[in-house]
Amino acid sequence: MQIQKITVIGTGVMGRGIAYAAAVGGFQVTVHDVKQEAMDRALETIRADLDSGVTRGKLTQEAADAALQRIKTSGDLRDAAKDADLVIEAVLEIMDLKMGIFRQLDEICPPHTILATNTSTMSPTEIASATKRADRCVAMHFFNPVPKMKLCEIIRGMDTSDETVKIARTVAEQMGKEAVEVNEFPGFVPGRINALVGNEAMYMMMEGVASAEDIDKAIKLGLGYPMGPLELADLVGLDTRLRNLEYLHQTLGEKYRPCPLLSKYVKAGRLGKKSGRGIFEYDEKGNKLPKKG
């Protein structure tokens, strides 16, 4: 089966990034969100990412213009998904929410449609159980920021067919990603490592081992990370990081217990770049502000 039309559910950092990659890869893309302003913001971000790609020499202006023309939005789930070949769900890491969306998609989509979840930690088997097409359900985990990160983890559920995995891999490669197939286990591969590193960085910050800036600098220069773990946590969203850790703590045990300081930041509404303030502070364009004093 050839994939031509992709619907992306959710317009957060991951959803709009996946939409960008799909459009650049030549697919017809429909982006769905319940809020029109969220879809408008997503299109603005995608347009900015395309312009950045042209500036960096990654795309020609013609390719960027063509990719933007391939994207449309729809606030109605039925309209967005009714003729999709592949739907990629990229909503919050809340199992009931994901299963509810998959249940609706199973009723809306044609029989051939593949349903993929962008979950970074959760069971595609459990998510697929909300449908009658578990053989055509799979996890396609992209990495943030999607326009720049090359990896896509493909995780098969208990009943995912070989054909579905093959198609998911082909789609990921057409989006410019390198795919790895991972056995289903909470957190998969980079997610488990990243959760540990990020959580330990929060503990070091809480214990006063070093400033947030110096912890990130030490990890980047000492271990070769392209981005410090605390800056990455702000980019992902501290609320998202907390939910992931809570799930991994529940499923994998004590070593994933969330740092109390992380919980405190989330309770204070300091969610990272998206709220303008997290571990670091940001301006209206999302640029990190210099440390005060």
From TrEMBL:
<feature type="domain" description="3-hydroxyacyl-CoA dehydrogenase NAD binding">
    <location>
        <begin position="5"/>
        <end position="184"/>
    </location>
</feature>
<dbReference type="GO" id="GO:0070403">
    <property type="term" value="F:NAD+ binding"/>
</dbReference>
<comment type="pathway">
    <text>Lipid metabolism; butanoate metabolism.</text>
</comment>
<feature type="domain" description="3-hydroxyacyl-CoA dehydrogenase C-terminal">
    <location>
        <begin position="187"/>
        <end position="282"/>
    </location>
</feature>
<feature type="binding site">
    <location>
        <position position="98"/>
    </location>
    <ligand>
        <name>NAD(+)</name>
    </ligand>
</feature>
<feature type="site" description="Important for catalytic activity">
    <location>
        <position position="141"/>
    </location>
</feature>
<dbReference type="InterPro" id="IPR006108">
    <property type="entry name" value="3HC_DH_C"/>
</dbReference>
<feature type="binding site">
    <location>
        <position position="274"/>
    </location>
    <ligand>
        <name>NAD(+)</name>
    </ligand>
</feature>
<dbReference type="Pfam" id="PF00725">
    <property type="entry name" value="3HCDH"/>
</dbReference>
<feature type="binding site">
    <location>
        <position position="144"/>
    </location>
    <ligand>
        <name>NAD(+)</name>
    </ligand>
</feature>
<dbReference type="InterPro" id="IPR036291">
    <property type="entry name" value="NAD(P)-bd_dom_sf"/>
</dbReference>
<dbReference type="InterPro" id="IPR008927">
    <property type="entry name" value="6-PGluconate_DH-like_C_sf"/>
</dbReference>
<keyword id="KW-0520">NAD</keyword>
<feature type="binding site">
    <location>
        <position position="33"/>
    </location>
    <ligand>
        <name>NAD(+)</name>
    </ligand>
</feature>
<dbReference type="InterPro" id="IPR006176">
    <property type="entry name" value="3-OHacyl-CoA_DH_NAD-bd"/>
</dbReference>
<comment type="similarity">
    <text>Belongs to the 3-hydroxyacyl-CoA dehydrogenase family.</text>
</comment>
<feature type="binding site">
    <location>
        <position position="93"/>
    </location>
    <ligand>
        <name>NAD(+)</name>
    </ligand>
</feature>
<feature type="binding site">
    <location>
        <begin position="10"/>
        <end position="15"/>
    </location>
    <ligand>
        <name>NAD(+)</name>
    </ligand>
</feature>
<feature type="binding site">
    <location>
        <position position="120"/>
    </location>
    <ligand>
        <name>NAD(+)</name>
    </ligand>
</feature>
<keyword id="KW-0560">Oxidoreductase</keyword>
<dbReference type="Pfam" id="PF02737">
    <property type="entry name" value="3HCDH_N"/>
</dbReference>
<dbReference type="InterPro" id="IPR022694">
    <property type="entry name" value="3-OHacyl-CoA_DH"/>
</dbReference>
<protein>
    <submittedName>
        <fullName>3-hydroxybutyryl-CoA dehydrogenase</fullName>
    </submittedName>
</protein>
<dbReference type="GO" id="GO:0006631">
    <property type="term" value="P:fatty acid metabolic process"/>
</dbReference>
<dbReference type="GO" id="GO:0016616">
    <property type="term" value="F:oxidoreductase activity, acting on the CH-OH group of donors, NAD or NADP as acceptor"/>
</dbReference>
<dbReference type="InterPro" id="IPR013328">
    <property type="entry name" value="6PGD_dom2"/>
</dbReference>
